[in-house]
Design goal:
It is a single chain. This protein is an alpha/beta fold. It folds into two domains: 4-61, no CATH class; 71-239, 3-Layer(aba) Sandwich (Rossmann fold). It is built from twelve helices and five strands. The termini are far apart.
Length: 253
């Protein structure tokens, strides 16, 4: 059977993965045993998988996650107080569908950023738009956007993002411009989209980080009343991993 014209027509209408699959099936002797509906099903599946992967790649590119973390690699054995049942519930991304928030708090090295990126990656896989920002970079971008007269466009882009990850917030007290920017971001997301914040500072001290009592009340009220909390503890996992690697290279005798 001459399939080259069909292959070219598939490519001409943008069905590249389906065209490739058709060539592969034609070259596979076992495919001759398949019924026509089975051929069609395989071709459609290949095209759908290809398009899903492209969309995921675009979402991950926009998200700019700091670490290549996935939820399947979470270490529940580490003694850091990670509630497995809660984290498994978060993996479903229902909290994002419900426009809820998540706070990840704990000492440095306990894996807050890694877990945040893993949840961000899972959200991308579930079809949500995600944006990762370290807190200092977010505030710097706010200042730059305001100075260049594009603050409205900048805030609109953030507002449309279904999950905003603000990593490593605190302990520096916010200045007036940072407070105003954070309030705008949080207010835009209230009951419409989700926020994930990681911090070394306990939540009870966040009021002091904002600095202005009135604005602090407004910001924290919009975050805390609708948030899941993960409070990690223990020593640095990075330090423990370094020690383990050293022991493996230089075993005791």
């Amino acid at each position: 059977m001459l399939i080259h014209p069909t292959v070219e027509r598939l490519r001409s209408v943008g069905l590249h993965a389906m065209a490739d699959a058709l060539v592969e099936l034609q070259d596979n002797p076992q495919a001759a045993e398949l019924l026509h509906p089975d051929w069609l099903g395989l071709l459609v599946d290949r095209e759908i998988t290809y398009r899903d992967n492209r969309r995921l790649a675009r979402r991950l590119q926009v998200a700019k996650l700091r670490q290549a973390a996935v939820v399947e690699n979470v270490d529940y054995r580490a003694s850091r107080g990670l509630d497995r049942a809660l984290f498994q519930a978060l993996i479903t991304c229902q909290w994002i569908r419900d426009h809820q928030h998540l706070t990840l708090v704990g000492p440095t090295g306990t894996g807050k950023s890694w877990l945040a990126c893993a949840l961000g990656h899972k959200a991308c896989r579930e079809g949500f738009s995600v944006l990762y920002k370290r807190a200092p970079r977010l505030f710097a971008d706010l200042v730059q956007a305001r100075g260049e007269g594009r603050i409205a466009r900048f805030l609109t882009a953030i507002e449309r993002t279904q999950l905003l990850i603000i990593d490593d917030w605190g302990p520096e007290v916010l200045n007036a411009e940072q407070r105003r920017g954070l309030l705008e971001i949080v207010d835009d997301r209230c009951d419409k989209s989700s926020l994930l914040i990681t911090s070394q500072v306990p939540i009870k001290q966040w009021h002091d980080i904002v600095g202005d009592p009135t604005i602090a009340d407004a910001i924290l009220d919009r975050i805390i009343h609708n948030t899941h909390r993960i409070e990690l503890k223990g020593h640095s996992m990075r330090r423990r991993q370094t020690i383990q690697a050293s022991e493996e290279r230089h075993p005791a005798v």
